[in-house]
Design goal:
alpha+beta; Umud Fragment, subunit A; 2 domains; 7 helices
Length: 328
């Protein structure tokens, strides 16, 4: 019987205590568990504390049963009540406060690796530098994970792999010219070459992946030699993409997405790496990029994200345990 009491403690916080008629302990356990769950929307480190409380509650329930067994008056009403309250709180937490997601691709490598389980805070206002989960504007049945680069009325331009926001370049420093990561190709994992750079935005400090050839191009520029052409991923180019003309054949035009606009700020000169054409983020939208810049389907190819499509701000990883912790 003691094993059943201990196991029942994992059905819902306080369930075992309520079943044994220990209503005061029942509400204390329930309050602690959901208090820590709410705290996990601020820091993912509150999650293991919530598990510890649940484990401690199971141990306490077992000890109480051994001590009070002859005097116990089982209270099914209290147990069912706390079970219902726990379910209601869990659903409210998911709908209004926090939710878990799984990274489906390598587009956010090296920050978020494919298969990572992440936690988002729905109550936080997304700001530049944050990683967000959102409904893809042209395929709203799909959830995407990207980094927010700019908000409404800000300008974005990418030239030779350097991102400019409001005309100012984000810090872009080489970390590893010979980086590799694993991706899926023909249903098997393969190693892909990349170059790793460090970037900073909005108080966030993080690494990104670029193509393997960027360090050599950077070295050429540092010698004062102009590159013959810009990068294939430069943005914006002559065509401005939105849901109306997105490159993905599954995309469809959605009424809540505005296309934004291009502003030419300088003639396109001999140096293809110089800024000359800005993209202006439309009202009520944000511009997003994947940290794996050469392998990311993002705002460069289907436009900005309406604010109403944002589900929440990523606050950390909880699985696998080797990756557990906050995310910058």
């Amino acid at each position: 019987m003691i094993a059943l009491i201990v196991l029942s403690a994992f059905i819902a916080p306080g369930f075992a205590h309520g079943l044994m008629g220990q209503t005061r302990a029942m509400w204390i356990v329930l309050g602690l568990a959901f208090g820590l769950l709410a705290a996990s929307t601020i820091t993912v480190w509150a999650l293991p504390l919530a598990f510890i409380v649940q484990l401690a509650a199971a141990v306490d329930a077992g000890l109480r049963y051994r001590k009070l067994r002859p005097q116990i008056r089982y209270n099914a009403v209290a147990a069912i009540t706390v079970f219902g309250v726990a379910i209601a709180l869990a659903l409210m937490t998911r709908w209004l406060v926090a939710e878990a997601f799984k990274a489906p691709s390598t587009s956010m490598n090296p920050t978020v690796v494919m298969g990572d389980h992440i936690m988002i805070a729905k109550w936080k206002t997304a700001k530049p530098g944050d990683i967000i989960v959102f409904r893809q504007p042209c395929q709203p049945d799909r959830d995407y994970i990207k980094r927010l680069i700019a908000v409404a009325n800000q300008t974005v331009e990418i030239r030779c792999n350097v991102v400019y926001v409001d005309g100012k370049p984000l810090p872009h420093k080489l970390v590893d010219p010979n980086a590799t990561y694993q991706d899926i190709y023909d249903d098997r994992m393969v190693d892909k070459a990349a170059s790793r750079y460090h970037e900073e935005l909005g108080g966030h400090s993080y690494d990104i992946y670029s193509d393997p050839g960027e360090p050599e191009r950077d070295a050429t520029q540092q010698k004062g030699v102009l590159l013959p052409e810009g990068d294939a991923k430069d943005f914006p180019q002559s065509v401005l993409y939105s849901c109306a003309n997105a490159t993905d054949p599954d995309s469809r035009q959605m009424p809540n997405q505005k296309p934004g606009r291009i502003v030419d700020v300088a003639p396109e000169g001999a140096d293809p790496c110089q800024v000359h054409r800005h993209y202006v983020v439309p009202e009520g939208h944000v511009f997003v990029l994947g940290d794996n810049r050469y392998n990311s389907n993002d705002s460069r190819y289907w436009g900005s994200v309406p604010l109403e499509n944002i589900k929440g701000v990523v606050i950390g990883r909880w699985l696998p345990l080797s990756h557990f912790g906050g995310i910058d």
